[in-house]
Amino acid sequence: MSPTGRPRATSLTARARRGTTAALAALACAALVVVSAPAPSSAEAVGSTTRLTVVLDGPAADLLLLQVTPVGPAGGPTRHGMVIHRDRQSHAITQLSPGPHTVALNQDRRTNLYPSGWLDDAGRWVSNESGTAPVVTIGSSWRELGPVSMPLGGTITGRLVDSAGADVTLLGASATPAGASAERTGSGDGSARLLVPGLSSTTYGLRVETFLGEHVLIDTPAGPALATEGALMPVSARLGTTTALGAIVVPDVFTDVLASNQFAREIAWVKDRGVATGFPDGRFAPLQSVNRDAMAAFLYRLAGEPPFTAPEASPFADVPVGTQFYKEITWLADSGISTGWLDGTFRPLEPVGRDAMAAFLYRYVDAFGRWADTPRSSTTRFVTPVASRFPDVSTTSPFHREISWMAAEYLTNGFGDGTFRPLQPVNRDAMAAFLMRVWGR
Questions:
Q1: Closest by CA position to 119, among listed 80, 128, 91, 177
Q2: In this predicted model, what pLDDT tens digit does every residue of 169-209 receive, in sequence order?
Q3: How many Å is the maximal CA-CA distance in the chain?
């Protein structure tokens, strides 16, 4: 079965999207920094703005962000420039007033092969580890700073695996120095590889994002692992070297749902929202069929457990007061999502067929909307197609409209052979996926 959903982009993913995973082939780059006061033209007055020119003459590797900021009582705006040394181009920073400045490299470049640092007045690269930005004096006469040698930053690597050792896809990662807010990010390339480059020689805490959400890297007796919360594992980095963490274990969603399993993301979502709590022994039983009473509970929780007083007399002959999920089942009937069978029963322990699942979801959306604060129009405006989307669902099938609506709303693609299999019971893992999509995630 292939009802697949698109992953939501989250904060780490967005921050890492422009990241680089290029090989660290270079050991240093050389920069030639020239500070000058150009001769004034007829339209300029003597003592007007000066110019800072940076020329990188090193091996092709990456881009460097240059920031020049005046210091002192006068202050002034920060001037920015991107030095593209892979093309060995120069970049001029203009409109600088004579006086003291700080010259920063890569302070705001979150993904880069080179670490953050500054240039000092002698044209030397200074790491952020020094804590204080050196001052470069820009005067009204020509000066030359450099050449400046910048080392490659340190790199933290690892591989995400589940508790059985299978790869888990990484979406993004960030490394934050201890006691600081600045961070470096690593991009996910669709694999399990963790790579965060451009680090200074200091200690970092790591945050990692997978399809299951955001995690922190913690230290366990068995080695590095991810967790939703906890004390961050300190990871040391050094300039020009790689810190290899090896296998990093992503926690199981349930005891029988590993992070690499099909629908693990969707099962984690229903768990986090309280839509599904699993069984008392810690299992989710992903391949077990969904019974009709459990379906009532899922939809009631998906609706946010709205206020409802269960009736003193049951509307169904086989659901007496006090039955497990009695409130949820009677809420389902009161909301018009289920009318039960013609003989007045609900049959709570009967598995839900995929056609009936489509009807339940269609009526749920018709009553409550597809997701919070969304107009309830996806059902009322839907026009039943004259031809069936699936070869095993005829236009005269009892739930043809509801199944066709699910396909039109991209809630299901059916199976790989093009069928929908309407009478097949829906499994709990697939139900988690359907519920997540109905919510709009």
A1: 128
A2: 999 999 988 766 567 787 667 899 999 988 888 899 999 99
A3: 99
Q: How far is CA 422 from CA 141, 257, 347, 395, 398, in A?
A: 82, 26, 18, 13, 10
What pLDDT digit, counting tens, does each position of 273-318 carry?
Answer: 999 999 999 999 999 999 999 999 999 999 999 999 999 999 999 9
How would you label 199-214 residue by residue, b for 16+ Cβ within 10 Å and e otherwise?
Answer: bbbbebbbbbbbbbbb
Neighbours of 322 (CB within 10 A): 8
Residue 326 is given by DSSP the state H
Question: Is residue 90 within 8 Å of residue 55, measured between CB atoms?
Answer: yes
With left for phi above 0 and alpha for psi between -120 and 50, is residue 409 left, alpha or beta?
alpha
* Residue 20 pLDDT: 38
Please answer whether residues 330 and 311 qualify as being in contact, where contact means their C-beta atoms are separated by less than 8 angstroms: yes
Same topology for domains 11-20+153-249 and 28-151, yes or no?
yes
Residue 77: name the closest of 62, 92, 97, 60 by CA: 97
Distance CA 438, CA 73 (A): 58
End-to-end Cα spacing for the chain? 19
CATH number of 11-20+153-249: 2.60.40.1120
- Token digits of residue 243: 């810190």
| pLDDT tens string 40-74 | 443 333 344 566 766 655 554 566 778 888 888 76
Q: What is the pLDDT of residues 213-265, one digit of tens each?
A: 999 999 999 999 999 999 999 999 999 899 999 999 999 999 999 999 999 99
Q: What is the dihedral of CA 421, 436, 160, 238, to 10 degrees?
A: 160
Q: How far apart are CA 258 and CA 275, in angstroms?
A: 19
User: What CATH number labels 28-151?
Assistant: 2.60.40
3-state secondary structure of 135: coil
For the segment 310-347, what is each residue's pLDDT rounded down to a tens digit?
A: 999 999 999 999 999 999 999 999 999 998 999 999 99
Helix axis angle, 292-302 relative to 326-334, nearest 10°?
70
Please give the Cα distance from 196 to 174 (Å, whole number): 7
Q: Where are the domains of the chain?
A: 11-20+153-249, 28-151, 264-439
Q: What is the dihedral of CA 363, 366, 367, 373, to 10 degrees?
A: 140
Specify the pTM: 0.77
